[in-house]
Amino acid sequence: MSDIRQSWYEAGARERIAALVDSGSFAEFVGPERRETSPHLGIFDLPAQFDDGIVVGSATLDGTPILVAAQEGRFMGGAFGEVHGAKLTGLLRAAKALGRDVVIAFDTGGVRLQEANAGEIAIAEIMRAVVEARIAGVRVVGLIGGRAGCYGGGGLIAGCCSTLIVSEQGRISVTGPEVIETNMGVEEFDSRDRALVWRTMGGKHRTLIGGADVFVDDDAAAFRDAARAALAQSARPLSVRSAYPHSFALSEVEGLGSIDGASTSLSTNGGGSIDGASTSLSTNGGGSIGGASTSLSTNGGGSIDGASTAPSTNGSGERPGLDLDTLAAEQARLERRIARFGDAADATDIWQALGIDDPKAVPDMPATAFATLAAQYRESADDAR
């Protein structure tokens, strides 16, 4: 780690991972040398990228093994496609099988229009994989502060994470500014008004209304410190069946894990390994992204397909607090939010309703001052968004 301040917003995916994890600890899965590119972009005469815009692998953080993913917002806006989504899905399934926490650096505009169906399926698979990993006792920490923000399906996935860490630049929304303007008109939302976009979707607003958990400055070291703290937090007990009463092995669901019948191999160099665990992320011929049989077995131990991996407790004897009661409480909170803030014309009106004396001063507040303010006025969340 360098003592020189590094902007998270300006960094690329690999730079973010290098700043986040212990030096020299990162081992990439399905890297550029595998040439696993999108099978669809060539049809539109669009350039491909050898990692398809996402970097995944294993590393350590303060000596603790984790799995990590980072989207490259400078390639097609970090948008989800078939291969891109399969890599993140495979990583999350490996996390469940290994009982290893995951850190995801989001930087995405949503689904690629050129791969719409495959991308939408990928979003659904990733969300399910996040929830199943959390139910198995895995913490999934999201980091949001990149150029593209976290829009569309990326915003949905982020909402499933155990903890969301955001900077002021970390815009979060299901619908992007341009889409809102196109559908509702510029009078309703002017996407060119950068101040409006940041007030409505930016990290400060999302933190104040409970859509993000931790606010940090645009500094790679700050994101690392916050991720370390999030992974060190105690988790609340969870009954797997009560939280997910219809849980079953992935192999019991015909077609689950399908990304439009993808036959793209995503194996990791001869089977690949995560610190000695021979985890296969391959599709077809030893697991299939197109058929729910993706093998994520760990040295003959736990297996996602055979459901023989016991829910992990990460050594603490506790699991993250994601259950039906939590979801019901969060739904009730969201209904109260609509009733309380539904008529607000601007984020500043919401901030005033929260009790902030000078809401117009919030956008210009430095990170430390804002974090202090948010601790006092932020809406509480219920471990779900």
Index terms:
385 residues, 10% strand, globular, seven-stranded mixed β-sheet, alpha/beta, 9 strands
Describe this structure in words.
- The chain is an alpha/beta fold.
- It is built from 12 helices and 9 strands.
- It has helices at 13-20, 82-98, 116-135, 153-159, 177-184, 194-201, 203-208, 220-232, 240-243, 324-341, 347-353, 367-377, and strands spanning 27-29, 54-61, 64-71, 102-106, 140-144, 150-151, 163-166, 172-173, 214-215.
- The strands form 2 sheets. It has a 7-stranded mixed beta sheet, with helices on both faces.
- Helix 2 links the parallel strand 3 (64-71) and strand 4 (102-106).
- It is globular and about 55 Å long.
Mean pLDDT comes to: 79
CATH topology type: 2-enoyl-CoA Hydratase, Chain A, domain 1
| Helix count from the secondary structure assignment | 12
Order of helices and strands: HEEEHEHEEHEEHHHEHHHHH
Mind telling me the C-alpha Rg? 20 Å
CATH architecture label: Alpha-Beta Complex
For the record, the CATH class is: Alpha Beta
Beta percentage is 5-15%
| Secondary structure tally: strands | 9
For CATH, the homologous superfamily is named as 2-enoyl-CoA Hydratase, Chain A, domain 1
| Low-pLDDT sequence parts | 237-320
Largest sheet, strands/sense/barrel: 7 strands, mixed
Number of domains: 1
| Sequence of strands across the biggest β-sheet | 1-2-3-4-5-7-9
